[in-house]
Amino acid sequence: MSSPSLSYSLSNIQLQLERYVYSLWIILGVPGCILDIAIFSRQRLRKISCCNYFLAASINNLVTLFVGVLPVMYSIDHPDLLTTSLWFCKIRGYLFQICLMLSRWFVAFACIDRYAQSSTNVRLRNFANIRMSYRSIVGIIVVWTIICSHRMIFYEIKGNICGIITNTGAALYHSLYVLIGGGVLPAAAMITCALFIRRNLNFKRQRRQTSTVADTEHQRQQKSLDQQILKLLFIQSFFYILLTTPQLINLIYSTISSTIPNRTTDRLAIDKIIAFLAELMLYVFPVASFYLYTLTARAFQQELLKILRLIFNRLTGRRPIQVGSLNHTLSTHNRQGPIMHLSPARRLTEYQHQ
Known about the structure:
Blueprint: H1 6-40, H2 43-46, H3 49-77, H4 81-84, H5 86-118, H6 122-125, H7 130-147, H8 150-154, E1 156-158, E2 161-163, H9 168-210, H10 217-257, H11 265-282, H12 284-296, H13 298-316, H14 323-336, H15 344-353
Antiparallel strand pairs: 1-2
Helix pairs in contact: 1-3, 1-11, 1-12, 3-5, 3-7, 3-12, 5-7, 5-9, 5-10, 9-10, 10-11, 10-12, 12-13
Domain G-protein coupled receptors family 1 profile: 32-293
Membrane topology: Multi-pass membrane protein
GO molecular function, one term: G protein-coupled receptor activity
């Protein structure tokens, strides 16, 4: 009895990875993304313009997991809608591409926001405000919704493949725009902003050393919070570049290999699992972002504890102590004078004296 062919073995490996790894992605990623959204929605963090990009990225990460992972998990034990329904093939590919582009550009604009905030140029610092962050987020969504629309036009189904297959020009355009718009440009923006932020912070540190004016407690707390947000941003940028690089390399490889005629079945199977592994890497950050944030930023940990405490109080029926109300009660008692508690024997003695 002959051993299974290479193509069959690789196909079986991919099936098992889809079954178990994708299930793990959903179990860990969905609660993590929901907690990310809850934390970045907190008033303390929403006052920082950069955190609005984090909030938008967290919402996008949740959508990415649903659009990217759930259809694949469904196809394990059911007919694959990607290869049986042309409209599903087009819509899923369109939405998935938008999500991937949004995630990269939200991080890139967060880097630009922090660079503007660290600048000594007043006009440039005006970019780092909450209203501008909302406008930028809407603009990013609109731009990539339009740019990715070619997927709705040129995506097709051939055999067991959903993609741009027969139109060589559209396939070349797709490869170039993903490589440049989804790889080179956002990565260059992140790296460049990181270098400029470091330069600006060094300049500010030198100015503080020569200044005789001490920071107030509020200013020190705000600087500490800004430093933690900046730390989150650098971590996010590093992992995005690291985890999207395999997909970009595979995109270049697949574009070149598509010009090679008469590829063997084993060669096609190898190319397929390489593309699958590259796509698998794209989900790592949406799954792991919450855990990275929790491990690296104290402000994130503090907001998480507040949310968990609030949930616990709601479940147990406890009401949190209102510090303001307690202080008001104490001050009212102080204005009314001291409250004296007399023992029964002392009250009887005073009554007899009367």
